[in-house]
Structure formats: structure tokens, C-alpha cells
């Protein structure tokens, strides 16, 4: 019988940790430090792949903050992800009676099933401009982690 070494985070590990993702100016996006820790399965999409990659090789008790360059965690901003959508398409995707304002996150049905979302930037007479980039695309971020347990 062999003993599996689970002393460090590997692909497929269940990791219990506290984590904090913050903007470069220190504003929290998400943090578990004031609440109970999170348990994540690496590779299941709970964190963006670049954030999961940071966890690989870390050991129980590790606590540090990693600085991510603009675009490193959620990719660079892509100008082609700014798109005009006809108001007819917007109405097809809206809840009955829903009004949209710039800054709203609107979900759309994807061709072939599934959903995707964009942030409304402006509304014209016949179409609306949406930003389909991830909201954190192109941002410099801080990712603080404290590894509590690994299975």
C-alpha cells in the first residue's frame, strides 16, 4: 500500500484556503478572510486558471500575496469584445418589463445553448453597446492566499 503525498497543491486537489482578490489600489473584489474558508477543487473552474496555477506547489500553512500584472488573471481587454446589439435582440433576452441602464450586466442566450453576459455601455436609437470582456480583464490584481488544508 502506497501513501499518497498530499503535502502540496496539485491539479485535482481539494484545497481549503482563505483567499482575497483585490484591485491594485487595495479595493477588495472578494475575500474569505473575514468569514469561513473556501474549499475548491482545482480544475473545476472555481477560480480562473491563472489563479489556480499560482496555487500549484503551495503547502499547508503557506500565506502570501501574489501581484498579477494587468491582464494576467483574466486576460487583456479586447476591443473586439465591445459590440453593438440590436434593441430587438436585447428585448428578446430581457425579462418582461425590465429596463436597462448603462452599467447593467445583461445575460444573453448563446448559440447552441448556454449563457453569456455583457455590461451595457450605452443605448442608441436602434442598438445598444455592450462590453463582453470579463469585468477584471486588463486589471492589475493582488491575490492573497492562505492554504489551510489539502486533500
From TrEMBL:
The keyword Isomerase applies. InterPro entries: PPIase_dom_sf (IPR046357), PPIase_FKBP_dom (IPR001179), SlpA/SlyD-like_ins_sf (IPR048261). SUPFAM superfamilies: FKBP-like (SSF54534). It is an enzyme of class 5 (isomerase). GO terms for molecular function: peptidyl-prolyl cis-trans isomerase activity. Keywords: Isomerase, Rotamase. It catalyses: [protein]-peptidylproline (omega=180) = [protein]-peptidylproline (omega=0). It comes from the Bacteria. The keyword rRNA-binding does not apply. Its EC number is 5.2.1.8. PROSITE patterns: FKBP_PPIASE. Signal peptide: none annotated. Residues 12-96 form the PPIase FKBP-type domain. Pfam families: FKBP_C. Belongs to the FKBP-type PPIase family. This is Peptidyl-prolyl cis-trans isomerase. It comes from Caballeronia sordidicola.
